[in-house]
Amino acid sequence: MNLEIITPGKELFKGEVSLVQLPGLDGLFEVLNNHAPLIAALKEGKVKATDTQEQTLFLDIRGGIVEVLDNHVLVLAE
Hints:
The protein is mainly β. It has strands at residues 2-6, 11-24, 27-32, 38-42, 45-51, 56-61, 64-69, 72-77.
């Protein structure tokens, strides 16, 4: 699935991943391939993404919103 993490100032990440873990308001949750459509608010924390070569990336965010639709995950982060 395709992941984009965007802040008001720049694009932090864009690429293919197999897993994304996000800090939701009610706790951490994961998104995998073929996940149901979703829009959720995010709190301060770490976004964890695992790419197709099993490399793991961690990015700190201060909150934001995530949209999941058709194997595309868009994170609008602060």
